[in-house]
Amino acid sequence: MAQGQQPILILPQGTSRYVGKEAQRINILAGKVLAETVRTTLGPKGMDKMLVDSLGDIVITNDGVTILREMDISHPAAKMLVEVAKTQEDEVGDGTTTAVIIAGELLKEAEKLIEMGVHPTIIAVGYRQAALRAQEILEDISIKASDRDTLMKVAVTAMTGKGSERAKEKLAELVVDAVMQVEEDGEIDRDNINIQRIQGASVNESRIVNGIVIDKARADTSMPKRVENARIALLKYPIEVKDLETDAKIRLTDPSQMQAFIEQEEQMIRDMVDKIKSSGANVVFCQKGIDDLALHYLSREGILALKRVKKSDIKRIEKATGARLVTNIEDLTEDDLGEAGVVYEKKIFDDVLTFVENCKDPKAISIILRGSTKHVAEEMERALEDAIGVVASTIEDGEVVAGGGAPEVEIARKLREYADTISGREQLAVSAFADALEIVPKTLAENAGLDSIDVLVDLRAAHEESPYMGLDVFEGSVVDMKEEGVLEPQRVKKQAIQSAAEAAEMILRIDDMIAAKGFDVSSKDEEDMEGMGGMGGMPPMM
């Protein structure tokens, strides 16, 4: 720059920029801290976290994605790992903690290689090769199965350690029955299984409903509370006189015109109710509003009606009863009606619910989930959702793997053999990938109060004989998980390893961070970040 010239500012004043190893170190630290936060929740003996928001509302859980979603995380690299957990939840429904801790460990191993002088791009290439090879190994060690007994074992494994210990067998029965009921052509839409969480009773009082439960009461107390042999109409049309869409004014010059206007509105509503009655419907679920006068006429005709029913509930009723949603009441015919043995209103604890029961082969179903307190019921619901996800994945794929850290140890063993066949520095990255996968059995051991080094040595030795050997955290010994019936869907492991590898690769390839004014991700706040202050100001989680 010539003497006297002013410096050229490309970025706004106050913008922070971190380049090269500094940027990589900050991002890796964020990933490691996030993984450490959820790590203690893994496995049957994992601990819970208590999360308190700004309003004082409490969430107690050991579900990885729930913890990450409830935390107010601001660090950009940490947010990328939160996305890994969310994707895992959406795709499979379980394995969110596994995915995050593998991603965190991959970053930790990469940091060691960077310090040794290995370029991040080479590490990323090696990780990609290792992830592809890991998928192939996973296919080789998978067990073909989708019978009911296997589904029960998968559901029980998913719920073990999630607060549902006392009733996991019963809940597993409910989950398997529900998933098998809604299965269509080998596919399961998890949205077709509705969980109605109600506190005030033991988990053992939970039950499956042969139909749908809606958390709404009838639109008017004068309507029948129970309708047998229900003929159900679903309307996406308001049973009321529509307001004028423009600012038009109606000028009345005579009192009789006012009376005629009112009578005309009444007649329109009466015609709508007559249309419903003539179709043969005796139960109406309306997605829109229902006029008070319409409620009076419907009550007089003995028709049970619910208004402003959620779109998701309408969809489930369609699946359960065979009804078709009608967008114009003039088009409603008998062919559009669905059938149910009974529709009735019932109060359970503090909740007034409407039951649509005794449906013929319903492809949508509800589970009434009980819990002694609000927080117990909420955690039960999360465990149930995980179980539904894994059972659905097992039915769709027909493949499971052993649990207890067995797949990770076997993949790590085979990856080390694969690394010996690779020339170049990528070999180091593949070996590092293998070491990172062993974080799963190490964490299971630590959370059970066992010596992780001894456990890992025993597991490696056992895997020379069988790929199904895993850690029994209750006995503290290495056992055959296939024989013990500890099984997980292959898709859980496949998705966890793939998404963790991709997230780690993306973070490693970042060598320049430009942060807007007021957003500080600098290393000088390292101590804060260790206490989660760098990711939303949360206190340290022990």
UniProtKB/TrEMBL annotation:
> Which Gene Ontology cellular-component terms appear in the entry?
cytoplasm; protein-containing complex
- Here the segments flagged for biased composition (Gly residues) are 531-542
Signal sequence residues: none
Q: Where is this region: Disordered?
A: 523-542
Briefly state the protein's biological role: Molecular chaperone; binds unfolded polypeptides in vitro, and has a weak ATPase activity.
| Family per similarity comment | Belongs to the TCP-1 chaperonin family.
Q: What is this protein called?
A: Thermosome, subunit alpha (Chaperonin subunit)
Q: Which organism's genome codes for this protein?
A: Methanothermobacter marburgensis (strain ATCC BAA-927 / DSM 2133 / JCM 14651 / NBRC 100331 / OCM 82 / Marburg) (Methanobacterium thermoautotrophicum)
